[in-house]
Design goal:
The complex is a heterodimer of chains A (266) and B (133). Chain A is an alpha+beta fold. Chain A is 36% helix and 17% strand. Chain A has one domain: Jelly Rolls. In chain A, strands 1, 2, 3, 4, 7, 9 and 10 form a seven-stranded antiparallel beta sheet that branches. Chain A has a three-stranded antiparallel beta sheet with strand order 6-5-8, with no helix packed on it. Chain A starts with 6 loop residues before the first helix and ends in a 6-residue tail after the last helix. The model of chain B has no long low-confidence stretch (mean pLDDT 89). The chains are: A alpha+beta (266), B alpha/beta (133).
């Protein structure tokens, strides 16, 4: 088969095909713009609720967030920010643009994007927002989707997430039903998982066929991260369909012509 | 405020049977979230490609602000027929909502986008396309 990729594209493709995930550098200005947006939302909500932030924490409020919020209030707080951000006109577009280059190499240049960008806040010692080991495909996502995961703080160890790299994933898929529950499953794979070490200013693209998840954040800082699914526009959808979960963000003219073609009438 | 009329199917929607009670729940929840005044739903008849109840809403067009369809999938039965009706509602400056997809249709441009989504649904590849024969 002919493949006319540039050397840069091949680098991305080879890495992604080998591991099933890729860490890449984001456009600094754009990702800072997103972080500032989140910071301003936090300050706004804190002000409304008369929560005073210590001066030394103001520049690092994301990492220090757990010092100001109770676990019981966390989900409402998260939903508040999530809804406000997703209502912003250019939020989704900026999110796409920071990962456009890698996404288009991995998925193609006609894309569908999830309608809302998910926000995850993992405060230290909190077990209310845990995602046990899973693959999104097991709950109705198409295996043709990828996830763009973007942290707003540096993440490593349990402040981050784990992934089972592609080669290991294939092995464990074959003996999947030996496990009775997700705890068993995690115990069987935990030595082979890779904890993602990623800095603010970097993004992660991964295929959610790979088993992944998180554990209780045992560090002293809060993790803030976004995730959003993308897929090639005309590739198969599963339970998360176009319109209900995804919307087209790029349709090329040839596809438009093709979809609108009608046979001459006799 | 005249309010919005719900519109549900008593037949299958894209091959799935969805109880009318569930369709109404989704519409009511959508209306509540969007702060839209919701008038009870019209239930389309069971027969394939039948849009008598949707047609009847044309008669009452001056008594409503628009229609809340349960889903965009309801347009797929007889696309030409339904899109023609929707075009009529837009010309009358009425708004159509699709509750499951949370989509709004009130202009020619919105209609173009909806048509495009229906085309993508029609043409995107199915898993079967990838299975070896």
């Amino acid at each position: 088969m002919f493949q006319y990729y540039s050397s840069n594209e091949l680098k991305i493709i080879n890495k992604f095909e080998k591991d099933g995930f890729l860490i890449f550098n984001l456009d600094k200005q754009k990702i800072k713009k997103i972080r500032n947006l989140v910071n301003s939302q936090i300050f706004k909500i804190f002000k409304k609720n008369k929560i005073k932030i210590k001066n030394e924490h103001k520049l690092d409020i994301l990492n220090k967030f757990h010092l100001y919020i109770k676990t019981s209030e966390l989900n409402n707080f998260r939903l508040n920010i999530y809804n406000n951000l997703n209502k912003k006109k250019d939020f989704l577009e900026t999110y796409f643009k920071v990962s456009k280059k890698e996404l288009e190499v991995i998925c193609g240049n006609e894309l569908a994007m999830q309608r809302k960008i998910n926000l995850s806040i993992q405060i230290p010692k909190d077990d209310s927002s845990l995602l046990p080991v899973h693959s999104d495909v097991w709950s109705g996502c198409s295996p043709f989707e990828v996830v763009v995961w973007i942290p707003l703080v540096n993440c490593s160890k349990t402040k981050s997430m784990f992934i089972l790299p592609k080669q290991e994933n294939e092995k464990y898929y074959k003996k999947f039903y030996k496990n009775k529950n997700s705890n068993d499953l995690y115990n069987s794979i935990k030595k082979k998982t890779k904890w993602i070490n990623i800095k603010f200013g970097q993004g992660l693209i991964f295929t959610h066929q790979l088993m992944h998840g998180n554990l209780v954040n045992e560090t002293k800082e809060t993790r803030w991260s976004f995730n959003c699914r993308f897929k090639s526009l005309m590739s198969p959808y599963d339970k998360k369909d176009i319109a209900e979960t995804f919307l087209p963000i790029s349709i090329r003219p040839a596809t438009r012509f093709g979809m609108n073609y009608e046979e001459p009438q006799t | 405020m005249k309010g919005y009329r719900g519109y549900i199917f008593s037949r299958k929607i894209n091959g799935n049977f969805i109880p009318q009670r569930v369709q109404n729940l989704v519409i009511r929840d959508f209306a509540l979230k969007k702060k839209i005044f919701f008038k009870l739903s019209s239930t389309e008849y069971n027969m394939e490609n039948c849009y008598i109840m949707l047609n009847s809403l044309i008669k009452d067009i001056n008594k409503i602000d628009g229609i809340i369809f349960y889903s965009i999938e309801m347009l797929a039965d007889d696309k030409k027929k339904t899109l023609k009706l929707i075009d009529f509602f837009i010309k009358k400056k009425k708004t159509i909502f699709f509750a499951v997809e949370e989509l709004k249709l009130s202009s020619k441009n919105d209609l173009k986008k909806i048509k495009e989504i229906l085309l993508i649904k029609k043409f995107y590849m199915r898993d079967i396309d990838f299975k070896l024969q």
